[in-house]
Amino acid sequence: MAAELPIPIFTSLDKAFPDIETAAAQGARYDSVVKEYEKRFGHKPTFIARAPGRVNLIGEHIDYVLFGCFPAAIERDILIACGPSQPGSEATAQDGATRGGVKAENLNPKYQPQSFVPMLKSASAPSAAEEADAASTVHAEASWHLDIDKRELRWESYVKAGYYGVLNRFFASNTEHPVPVDMLVTGSVPSGSGLSSSAAMVVSSTLAFLAVNNKLEGITKGQLVEMAMENEKRVGVNSGGLDQAASVICTPHSAIFVDFFPRLSAEPIPLPTPRTVPRAVFVCANSLVVSDKVVSAKIHYNLRVVETLVGARVLALRLGQQLGPSERPRLREVFSRWLGSPELESSPEKVKAELLRFLPEIEKLRPSPQGRKEGELGVTMKEMVEWSGLSEEQFHQVYLSWVDVEAEYFQLYKRARHVITEAIRVLEFREVCLRAQAAEGDLPEDTLRELGALMDASHESCSKLCESSCSEVDQLAELARASGAYGCRITGAGWGGCTVSLVAEDQVESFIAKIKAGYAPYKELEGEKLHEVIFATKPSSGAFVLKLD
Ligand code: NG1
Ligand code: MG
User: Fold this and answer.
1) What's the whole-model pTM score?
2) Where is this region: Disordered (predicted)?
3) In this structure, which ligand is nearest to the CA of 494?
């Protein structure tokens, strides 16, 4: 239901935020980006597209195998002031006037101004670069092209990624010209920290191009999520839809339970607000280890995508499921086939019960210890190909031709075990929150401990089975627990980035002081600098467009 709502378009900020204080506090940022836009481009912007980052409370590395997650939007966001550019401006140079040229600037001087003009290509003749493009399998019909360098992380790649979807959805027939655009970007989501600055960039960019081209009408939140997911793949990470769904669909005061099977759906769920025991808040703490997901994708993120896909295939075969050589089911689909009845998936409660029954089947992926290094649960490429029942050539075609990955051992068993146990924890987390909602605030403190324990177990699984943590993040999580958090876990893709801790509201200050004292990289940080890296966050509103007059 939440996914079927239209994209909110506001004409004033007090309608955009849940309370007058937030609207007033945010107002200054909006005013200053408008003023700066006028100064740089010599005309007023017509819209501000806004998309928040997110904190994933639980459910890591399971969205791309179609299991549900539990994120909330955070207050930190990306704003893009935008409008049609004037004749003679840089965006209109080199056919930009008729081909939707773009002049994109960023308030952060670290990010250089960029101009680019999309190319219109005939759909029947993709270029060699497009053929080699990992995402071109998704967009075989695409006729617009923008150069995105996947070997390097460039800020404008995210702007281009957002534009791609808009061009190919609305301007592929070439009966109408895309409008040339001037845009000014500013953001408060730290990049590479697991709070999803990338999805906030892609969602806000997609929204900005939709708005300037007058294409917002009739687009639902779910459609925007799907566009932003496809768009983000253009940057070279084969991600699921967790971040985009959180950034688009979330509402203030609630997290969402977002599921991806059989289709995208989202259920806003208020976080427990006890009356009798201290309220709890979520505190994000940045490990300050920056994970460059695009550059390290082949040994980290994309490798997890491939390991879970191959694991799903092997499991399907070992469960006696029939698979064609080119089929590439995800773990959720294998689970669903194993169940055999859509009835059993009609509610999250039923899915949880069935997942508990399914869990022992994962043992079918455990390799026999014979001829293996002590404790090694992974398989070599050669074994993996054998297990898949495919020829080497077929295996390459289905599992490797669209992605670059590198490993000595592929951990099919550990990853699948992480996925199924994490999917169960998400559903348990959801149940605890719903129980708390039904109790209307009369909660035993155990409710918070239950949530905390699920977060701790999730961290343990991310660290040991998914292996998406790192020593600094593990240390921060330990420290958070020792500093009084009900629970703490890594949030986001990992290999650095942030933890999220559940902390009693009246203890946030002492909690932060303890972390500052115990985590060496924070020792020198004070005031605003400290607040940049460790802060309590309230569930905020999802993406919207502000129409300026
Ligand atoms: P972040 O932390 O934003 O890079 C990534 C993926 C998600 C999800 C999480 C792990 C992108 C855009 N997002 O998030 O889809 O898989 O990792 O749970 O790559
Ligand atoms: Mg990201």
Assistant:
1) 0.91
2) 87-108
3) 1
